[in-house]
Design a protein that fits this description.
Blueprint lengths: L9 E4 L1 H8 L7 H15 L16 E5 L9 E8 L3 E10 L3
Parallel strand pairs: 1-4
Antiparallel strand pairs: 2-3, 3-4
Length: 98
């Protein structure tokens, strides 16, 4: 029998990314649900982001999530890196859907 262990990495926000995150403090806001989903996803499959250039393996990856005005969600851009134990969010940009 084959067992597949899912690695759950710790999400760590650098100061500038944490400051952006702290602007959205209402736990009942849809952004809170969005960021919890992003953290869940990145902690399990951090390789989903894109490098700046496809032909060069990158230390930093970019994850872009488009928001939806009907769902009241925001556009999220995350610049991050990861190793076996952590996902470090180096940059975070959050904008409203136009």
């Amino acid at each position: 029998m084959t067992t597949f262990w899912v690695t759950h990495r710790t999400i760590v926000y650098e100061k500038s990314a944490q400051e952006v995150l702290d602007q959205f403090t209402d736990p009942h806001d849809r952004f809170h649900d969005q960021i919890m989903g992003v953290e869940w996803l990145l902690s399990r499959t951090p390789n989903i982001g894109f490098p700046a250039r496809k032909e060069v393996p990158a230390e930093y990856l970019l994850l872009v999530l488009n928001g939806d005005s009907l769902a009241n969600t925001k556009n999220i851009w995350l610049l991050y890196s990861y190793d076996d134990e952590t996902v470090a969010v180096h940059g975070l940009n959050v904008t409203d859907v136009e």
